[in-house]
């Protein structure tokens, strides 16, 4: 590699990209680390505008990306500009509207604040990917080709099949084939031949002058076709074990989340009770001028935090009696 790039280069930075996309992110991304890396890849593709994303979806997805990075929304963050230095939206989206960076951030924060409490990083990433997989350009590899009239077209290869697009529009295909409808794809020199199923169906012949690109097209077609057929067969023993382990881990995370939410709710209730005690105490202090009541309450509140027990109190002739 050093010889190819030049002997004076000491450091090479590599960017790894996804070659094969799952048809359904919820079913196809089994391991947590796979989902995390896939999320990073798709997010970069959208922010770099390799995948077209409308403004509404872009803002919604940005809020889930923020949730995945920072966790639950905190009211203390509402008036802080911690998101201004981050790239949250594609430049094309920001240029479509006359909004300042602060206004974009406020829109994202508003959606971020509406997320349910306890939405984990993995759950936020999955919500992001579920929106992304419905975008028209998601998971499509585009290759420039020509028809027999030398009109330039785009060949789009994806998990479910092949699309042919006009040169001006990569969003809406002119012709589509799912993998089960394709009998064979072959190459001869610069010619690409797509043979659909059925005797009466005409084959499609295209031209690509880049031989190395033709090999890439062939490998991508073969790999996606193989995975397409594999997904429609019973899972292998290895895949069954992986899914079982992933489901067990997911179940454990859900139980941990429930325990966390239960403890958090208990903490909120205890804090609320303490404030009620404190309000009542302040009234009696004003009336009686007895500082010992506050000292007694503080001791019991410290014990409350230490032992995490629920207490209730009774004001009895100017004295606060606290019980477990």
Keywords:
10 helices, 324 residues, 4-stranded antiparallel sheet, 3-stranded antiparallel sheet, alpha+beta, 15% strand
Number of strands: 9
Describe the global form. elongated
Give the SSE order as H and E letters. HHHHHHHEEEEEEEHHHEE
- Which structural category fits the helices and strands? alpha+beta
- What percent of the residues sit in helical stretches (DSSP H or I)? 40-55%
Tell me the fraction of residues in β-strands, as a range.
Answer: 15-25%
Mean pLDDT: 84
* Distance between the amino and carboxyl termini: 71 Å
Q: Count the helices. How many?
A: 10
From the alpha-carbon coordinates, what is the Rg to the nearest angstrom?
A: 30 Å
Instruction: Please state how the strands of the largest beta sheet are arranged side by side.
Output: 1-2-3-4
Q: Sheet bearing the most strands, described?
A: 4 strands, antiparallel
In the predicted model, the low-confidence regions spanning at least 5 consecutive residues are 309-324
Question: What do these coordinates show?
Answer:
With 324 residues, the chain is α+β, with helices and mostly antiparallel strands. 49% of the residues lie in helices and 15% in strands. The longest helix has 52 residues, at 237-288. The model is unreliable at 309-324 (pLDDT under 50).
Quick recap:
By secondary structure, the chain is α+β, with helices and mostly antiparallel strands. It has helices at residues 2-5, 25-28, 32-47, 55-70, 91-96, 101-113, 121-132, 211-231, 237-288, 292-307, and strands at residues 141-146, 152-157, 161-166, 175-178, 182-188, 191-196, 204-207, 312-316, 319-323.
């Amino acid at each position: 590699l050093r010889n190819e790039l030049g002997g004076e280069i000491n450091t090479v930075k590599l960017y790894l990209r996804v070659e094969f996309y799952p048809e359904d992110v919820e079913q196809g991304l089994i391991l947590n680390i796979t989902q995390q890396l896939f999320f990073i890849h798709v997010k970069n593709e959208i922010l770099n505008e390799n995948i077209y994303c409308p403004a509404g979806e872009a803002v919604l997805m940005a809020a889930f990306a923020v949730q995945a990075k920072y966790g639950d929304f905190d009211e203390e963050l509402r008036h802080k500009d911690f998101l201004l230095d981050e790239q949250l939206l594609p430049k094309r989206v920001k240029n479509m509207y006359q909004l300042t960076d602060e206004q974009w951030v406020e829109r994202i924060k508003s959606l971020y604040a509406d997320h349910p409490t306890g939405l984990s990083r993995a759950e936020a990433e999955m919500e992001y990917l579920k929106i992304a997989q419905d975008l028209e350009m998601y998971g499509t590899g585009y290759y420039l080709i020509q028809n027999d009239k030398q009109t330039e077209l785009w060949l789009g290869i994806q998990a479910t099949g092949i699309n042919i697009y006009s040169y001006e529009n990569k969003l809406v295909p002119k012709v589509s084939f799912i993998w089960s409808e394709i009998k064979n794809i072959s190459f001869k020199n610069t010619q690409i031949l797509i043979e659909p199923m059925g005797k009466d169906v005409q084959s499609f012949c295209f031209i690509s002058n880049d031989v190395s690109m033709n090999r890439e097209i062939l490998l991508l077609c073969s790999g996606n076709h193989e995975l397409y057929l594999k997904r429609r067969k019973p899972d292998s023993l290895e895949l069954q074990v992986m899914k079982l382990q992933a489901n067990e881990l997911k179940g454990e995370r859900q139980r941990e989340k429930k325990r966390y939410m239960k403890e958090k709710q208990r903490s909120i209730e205890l804090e609320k009770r303490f404030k009620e005690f404190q309000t009542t105490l302040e009234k009696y202090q004003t009336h009686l001028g007895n500082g010992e009541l506050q000292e007694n309450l503080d001791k019991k509140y410290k014990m409350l935090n230490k032992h995490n027990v629920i207490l209730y109190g009774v004001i009895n002739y100017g004295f606060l009696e606290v019980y477990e």
